[in-house]
Amino acid sequence: MGNIAKLTFICISYLASFNVNAESDSPRIIKLSPEKITQHNVDLPLNQFKSLEILAAKNVSSAQVPRPYQFTGNNQASLFGVDLNNNGIRDDYERMLLKSYQRSEYVAMGILAAERWDKLLRLLQSQESIKTPYQALELFNDTIAINQCYYSLQQIDKTLISPVLSYFNNDQLLEAKYKAELLLLDIIGSKQTSFTFHQEPCERFAEFAKKTKTTKFAAL
User: Fold this and answer.
1) Domain that includes residue 164, residue range
2) Helices 171-188 and 104-121, interaxial angle, to 10°?
3) Is the entire prediction scored with pTM above 0.85?
4) Is 62 within a domain?
């Protein structure tokens, strides 16, 4: 009886070791699908709740965005495009945000970035909003932080595309951007040596959001 027990134990041990070796020799399964982008694995500057507040305040939704519209007018009007729903966002850019980004956080970021680009272009009309070298330096650093933030997020979310070329989407806008940046540098003047780039560029979006009037949702 004792010999039978020993033999049984040896057989079980052999089978167990065989299974371990078989598992170690078998190829590991590689996940071909990328990990879902969430607040837990990507440090987004805005959470979904804050993003929805911004979209609500700006009246941005697929149901409200105007259909494609061909505008023919003077150059100054076309520089800022058409905004038929009067929410302060160029209609073609608004449609692009809603079509290209499935996450409300990315749509809200695109809106906040456009507010800074609008401010840059308006320098060509008036310098009332940018009067001091400090104000000019802040706007200049903000535009750089926007680019840096999108670049850093693209290292994690390979599907993310910066909206900058969708905003400056023609030669007229690119030329206006160039002229506005030169004007900005003229205002900065000797303060150009004071450039201090943001160490956490995505945090600037959180600061942009604080300055944006939003609709507060009641907690359920």
Assistant:
1) 37-211
2) 70
3) no
4) yes
The answer to whether residue 27 scores a pLDDT higher than 90 is: no
Q: What is the rounded average pLDDT of the residues 133-141?
A: 91
Indicate whether 7 pLDDT > 60. Answer: no
What tens digit of pLDDT does each residue of 46-62 get? 999 999 999 999 999 88
Q: What is the tally of structural domains in the chain?
A: 1
Rounded mean pLDDT, 99-124 = 94
6 located within any domain: no
Give domain status of residue 203, yes or no.
yes
Q: What distance in Å separates the CA atoms of residue 68 and residue 91, rounded to the nearest whole number? A: 8
